[in-house]
Amino acid sequence: RSPYDREIVRIGLPALGALAADPLVSLVDTAFIGRLGAVALAAVAIASAIYAAVFAVFNFLEYAVTPLVAQSIGAGDRDEAGRFTVAALAISVMGGVIAGVGLIVFSEPLLRAFGAEPDVLESAVLYLRIRALGVPALLVVLVGHGAFRGYQDTRTPLIVTLGLNAVNLVLDPILIFGLDWGVAGAAWATVVAQWFGA
């Protein structure tokens, strides 16, 4: 046992919960989209793979801001921690807008390059273009998570992640089946949830 055990658990458990809850959005979307048939499921799967690849490029923002903020807080310089956070948020918004526009403009050639068959291409393009509108929000959420961890607050990212998932869970059936938007409904539910999280 260590005198730091309690503090490690206080910080570590919510962080683990937030990491575990992150993939739930995709899991929920897949569960609902699967009820629309194989073509819809294939369209969402291939579009999601491209979205995940773009997202992976910006993953460094979340993990870069945490130690910078933590070091500033440890040195007692909250102003510097704030500057690092604001700078990372600005980069995430700018990068998100650029990536989102890129996904909208190049969605069809990207999907073809990833092997999208003609029967799934139209739905995949629609899904990817709508999801692209959420890239800035998703990056803001990620940077926010990283900054909060630097401030030793892992509960807030957990609450944001659970709230985001709850919004998606409620909107998915309404937009996919209630309004009969299908694949577009799943994409809009996720985009709204991501902006809610941001």
Principal-axis shape: globular
Contiguous runs where pLDDT drops below 50 for at least 5 residues: none
For the largest beta-sheet, the strand count, sense and barrel status come to: none
Q: How far apart are the termini?
A: 38 Å
Compute the CA-based radius of gyration: 18 Å
List keywords for this structure.
198 residues, mainly alpha, globular, 85% helix
Explain how this protein is built.
With 198 residues, this protein is an all-alpha fold. 85% of the residues lie in helices and 0% in strands. It is built from nine helices and no strands. It is globular and about 60 Å long. The termini are far apart. The model has no long low-confidence stretch (mean pLDDT 93).
Give the SSE layout.
Elements (H helix, E strand, L loop, with lengths): L4 H17 L2 H10 L4 H20 L1 H16 L3 H36 L4 H15 L2 H16 L4 H24 L4 H15 L1
